[in-house]
Amino acid sequence: MDSPETNKIVTSTSTSSSTTSSPVVQESPFFNYLRTLSPIKPVKAAHVAQGFPELSIPTPPPVFTSPRLNPQSETIFLNRSKHFHSSNKKLSIGHEGNRDRGTDISERPISRLTVRLVSCSQKGRDSKCSAQVQPSSPSQFVDEFLADPVEVVRTNSSDPDVTCLNHVDDTPEVQLGCIRSKETTVKENNVNDELLKYVENGSDVQIKSSEQTEVDLQGRSVAVFKTGKMENGESQSVVYQDLASEDVNDINFPNSCIKPVSGAQNSPHGKARSAEGSQEATCDNNNQVLSEIMQMGEYAGVASNESAETKIVDPEETGQNQRVLRRRCLQFEASVAHRKSIFSNQGFSSPAIISRCSRLPANSTEMEMLESSELDCGISNNICTANSSQPMASKPSPCAAKTVETHNDKLNRSVRNGGNPSIKAPLPSGIGLHLNSIVNTAAMGCTASLSRKPSENDYPSAQREKPPSVPNQYLPTESKSFSVPASVLGKFSVKRLGYELETQSIADNSATFQFPNDNADQIQEFNQLSPQKKRKRTFTNEDEGCKRCNCRRSKCLKLYCECFAAGIYCAEPCACQECFNKPQYEDKVLETRKQIESRNPLAFAPKIVRRVTDSPANSIMLQEENKKVTPASARHKRGCNCKKSMCLKKYCECYQSGVGCSAGCRCEGCKNAFGIKEGYGEVSERLSRKVDGESWEDNSDGKLAMVTRSNFIEQEHCHPHNNLTPLTPSLQYPKYNFSNIVFF
DNA sequence: GAGTTTGAAACT
DNA sequence: CAGTTTCAAACTC
């Protein structure tokens, strides 16, 4: 069972030697652990094929700055259709994440990583559970990590380094445990025997759902997690953990279907093996275990509670969930380690924060930009095609309708059970925001439009528009919301995502992602629309969140195409014609992209760069500093060139992105509400302006200046995190478009 | 929904 | 690099 072969798992290899497998990683406990498990044959090192596969893997963003960063110019083009396909899932073991801060997994052992694994399915396990071990890109980690909600719980442990990730959504069987920065030791004790007895004696019962039991074995508390033999025939498994100590018990169970308890992987001496309680349900395929382990890393979410939760698996869902999980066949150890190490290093309690900055530099220039700044946060967009099987509840896609149902059901159940549904929604992934990316994958249901929800006062009544919302066609069938704690919001950057971020009161520093009510009919309706109708439909305000390209003559191979510019393939919501920006034309896409980049290396770089500091205090300071210098902290990289719109309409990229014009702009008659171009007067200068068609003028009490400052602050803070001066109600807030913004 | 305006991208 | 053309989004009616 154990694989005698070493180095079966090839860590991801990018074009740079800096990303080759680290000996440290390979010698890490986890790596050793995997060696003993995985029969998976070595795979050719290849970077993730999420996007344009020929392009090299971007290195982690500067927030994870490491001397090992690969400065090589890299670009990434996301392949929606492949993004969530389990068949394309690739496993990356550890080291990629380690590049972040030069922290090796082995340096940050994971203990108490309690995992309630899904039970093994005897049927078709091979096909479902086999985890293809391949390298993966960090971005994939991030996106997928963010794709699923988990609950990050700081335990009651006095150890500040302990952070628990509790998956709370669709796979309650999986719990990410605690991350500890200190090493553990393994002690011999008799618990193993006792536990084994317990397992063997107690596991032959037909249990319907996973359960966790704490048993007292020789005075030591041992948590036993069982996943029972399901009525559908799926097997039972048991995992255990000594709760009394940080130690990982070495236990030899007769069966090899391991159900690892945390720490085993990373404990220096951990050799945790596990057994399954049911003899008839022997799991002889370690791939499943590996797959499940990898799934651990798939979940990310937001910090929420102060206490851990025990998730109860609904037996009705278990089978389905497992199938969903297996379909994912994720490989996330590296991602987990990556994130965990960041958690520990940053002291963050939320993976969402880690998820920030996960967008990878598109090229060397961008990398430089990133490196030169403290990349703060970002929520990137997950991208998928309408055809992709994408089981995330909050990023439902038509193709994942069944999964969506499952999620919804879970949500409902959770609500009924008094659970906290507010944290069910996955955070949109994506960080950094692809420069040009609009990634409005909202349309795909895979991204969220994370935009400030304007109050009614934000716009002139005559022009009041509905705030961007998730396109109906890709939304769950029920309205959902989830709250994001201040700790997360504080680090958020905002981009056009599929979801609407509704800023709560500034005082509570929280925000709620609101999922509009939705219905499948609309989904179907939209999908049945002709391209012409989609064209119209797609760009209505109410569907802004799902804006897709509408190219007719560019074949979606020019920067005119927002999808192409964003580095994503066109998909179902697009109304483009003769589109070549599709996976089947990958070669052409890549070729064109390279051609464009050869002409302009920054063609796919972010247009808008914001500077955001890592702490509110710093942000304030920076704001104050910036106010003295420029009207806005964010700048359009190249500057606009408006002649007639006076930078007051969305024709203007600066205005559209909610940033002020700068000296780099060549606009004429600039009246950008977010900050006019230098030379056209100070921000606080009294001037008449017209915003969204409504003219207003500041008065002598400095109101305008204050308003401008508020805009300023809002931008600076990635708006949800704004505990500064609230916007003046009378301010006619232009609608933000964070599509092309990168936050630093 | 059709047509116009606009400015970025592409081309020369 | 500047001028022109093409293009698609934004906007208006």
Automatic annotation (TrEMBL):
Which residues lie in Low complexity bias regions?
A: 11-22
| Compartments reported by the entry | Nucleus
One Gene Ontology MF term: DNA-binding transcription factor activity
Pfam families cross-referenced by the UniProt entry: TCR
Question: Looking at the record, which segments are called Disordered?
Answer: 1-25, 88-108, 260-281, 450-478
What are the alphabetically sorted keywords of the record?
A: Nucleus
Q: Name one GO cellular component term.
A: nucleus
Q: Which residues form the CRC domain?
A: 545-675
Q: What is its main location?
A: nucleus
Q: Which InterPro entries match?
A: CRC, Tesmin/TSO1-like_CXC, TSO1-like
Keyword Transferase annotated: no
Instruction: Enumerate composition-biased segments (Basic and acidic residues).
Output: 96-108
Q: Family per UniProt?
A: Belongs to the lin-54 family.
Q: Protein name, please?
A: CRC domain-containing protein
Q: Which organism is it from?
A: Aquilegia coerulea
| Phylogenetic placement of the source organism | Eukaryota, Viridiplantae, Streptophyta, Embryophyta, Tracheophyta
